[in-house]
Structure formats: structure tokens, C-alpha cells
Amino acid sequence: MDFKLPLPIGELKIITIIEYIDGPKIFSCLNEFDQKFLVNWIDTSPETDKWFYVPVSDYRLDLVM
């Protein structure tokens, strides 16, 4: 599953899904600039889903996994 977000995040590719309940809720992803993010689902409305993106280093991402 890939996502296209406005810059500066850009196009994202999911690396690892940490929690999946009717779709990914917590996952790590990589953008086209090789920046990794830890992503957490916040809320759903009739129009859209809300997500919290935190840029992380490889070291910090390994600590979460």
C-alpha cells in the first residue's frame, strides 16, 4: 500500500505494519527522499482519515520494533 502526500513528505511506501485493525493503524514508511516515518492513525471522519507522522532515524525505528 502506497500513499501520495503533499511535499515535504511526498510519496510513501510502507515498510512494516506494526498494528493492523481493518487497515494499518501504526506503521513505518519511507518517502522518496529516504526519510523514514513512524505513522499513527488518529481518527476517521466521513471525509478522511487523520494520521500523525513522525520522522525517525534508523536507530529510533529499530528501538520501536
Describe this structure in words.
By secondary structure, the chain is mainly β. The protein has one domain (2-64). The protein has one helix at 58-64; strands spanning 2-4, 11-20, 24-31, 36-44, 49-56. A hairpin with a 4-residue loop joins strand 4 (36-44) and strand 5. The longest helix is centred in the last third of the chain and has 7 residues, at 58-64.
Topology:
Blueprint: E1 2-4, E2 11-20, E3 24-31, E4 36-44, E5 49-56, H1 58-64
Antiparallel strand pairs: 1-2, 2-3, 3-4, 4-5
What pattern of helices and strands is seen along the backbone?
EEEEEH
Helix tally equals 1
Sheet with the most strands? 5 strands, antiparallel
Radius of gyration: 12 Å
Distance between the termini: 20 Å
Features:
globular, mainly beta
Quick recap of the structure?
The protein has 65 residues and is mainly beta.
